[in-house]
Amino acid sequence: xxxxxxxRELFFFFPSLVxxxxxxxxxxxxEDDRLSDLPPNIVESILTRLPIREAxxxxxxxxxxxxxxxxxxxxxxxxxxxxxxxxxxKDIFVNFVTRCLFLHxxxxxMFKLSTSYLQYVPDIDQWILFLSRNDIKELVLELxxxxxxxxxxxxxxxxxxxxxxxxxxxxxxxxxxxxxPNLRILTLHQVLxxxxxxxxxxxxxxxxxxxxLSYFDSLAMTISAPNLxxxxxxxxxxxxxxxxxxxxxxxxxxMYMTDDIAEHFEQSSSCKFVKFLGGTPLLxxxxxxxxFTKYLxxxxxxxxxSITYDRLKVIELYQVSFEDMKEILVVLRLITSSPNLRExxxxxxxxxTLYNVIERSLFYDFLSLLQGSSNTVASxxxxxxxxxxxxxCPSDCTFGQLKSVKMTDLSCVPHELxxxxxxxxxxxILETMRVSPSSYVKDKTVNMLMQLVRFRRASxxxxxIFEHE
Length: 469
Description:
Elements: H1 4-13, H2 15-19, H3 40-48, H4 52-57, E1 74-78, H5 79-83, H6 90-103, E2 110-115, H7 123-132, E3 138-143, E4 149-150, E5 163-170, E6 185-192, H8 195-203, E7 210-224, E8 230-244, E9 250-255, H9 259-266, H10 272-277, E10 285-288, H11 292-296, E11 314-320, H12 325-336, E12 343-348, H13 354-371, H14 376-392, E13 404-410, H15 414-425, E14 432-437, H16 445-452, E15 463-466
Parallel strand pairs: 1-2, 2-3, 3-5, 4-5, 5-6, 6-7, 7-8, 8-9, 9-10, 10-11, 11-12, 12-13, 13-14, 14-15
């Protein structure tokens, strides 16, 4: 039964909600209905699955339901909530959130504010202050693009935080900040923060397991997190050093290149491969997006250094240049150091204009024709080029667990074919080798296919799948 006093109270705080609620579909003799007899944890589970607007509406169901929503430990205010408010204005949305927090009773373990309609408003500072006093454990702030929201200092008093996600924010930890002792998940997307501040933040979270940094500009940083397991990096990074990440199991990296960063790379002499992957022996899944292999190829790889990735099962490398011998060495170094590799995916970068592509294809055609002749100069060029595979590939290399290989956007250069030949020759249990050429070299695909089918395969069941539009 709907309590008239409860409905008046709801109308006072949320008039727009009561206006479209209608009368509750309950009989007057159903005050002790089955829903009211449900255990508190079941009721909370039901209310948590409702949009916050609908959860507030349950106040008018009966006297026993009047304040049930107000004890929810998880509050989500997102665009779905905005859409349900009818004629939306910023003031309506802000007042709705403020009143929900004002009427709330008990701890709030998770608070999520995710809306593209809202940028900075002073009320958010008050919300975070309120949350900092209510045992907040998970905080997600995803604000719309526009004015940056400067995170208030009271956030750094939330010592019980286990998850923190910030989008379109400015972060400046105070000098007195000693870290989040319970933080396990940290996600920063388009966040303005100084390199030393973010390094200090990461290192002062002793149990951090999941870290995601995306859309950072010209950032050089060292990551020290002994319990880190999952790392995602995306942005314009000048330099990254994984100094203390021995527990890392999954890594995804995308590095965007600007002229300044490219010049910085050219002037660097330190081995990026060792600085980045030299201390990750437990790695299981590696995803290298744009410019990743280019970055790892910088500097001289020390002859005395070696590492084995016994747990690495999946490697995905994108935008790899098979015309850069140092990038090819990076790929070989990774796969030959991963004895239990099962899945390998490589997409090839295709640099240059269409004119350069055609010129390059004609050049290799010319070399192929001369290779069959007695022209010693042309033979020397090709032989020297392909001697790389005899010199750099270990003769006893075997990919004993590799079952699936996929290579895309091939441009029919010799080193791509030599790499495929190397994989087929040393993978005894390989099941599928998927190959797809770039759309820019359609006229080379027949010749490429003819060469591929002639390559010797160590696995009798290996299926070569040539995918071509």
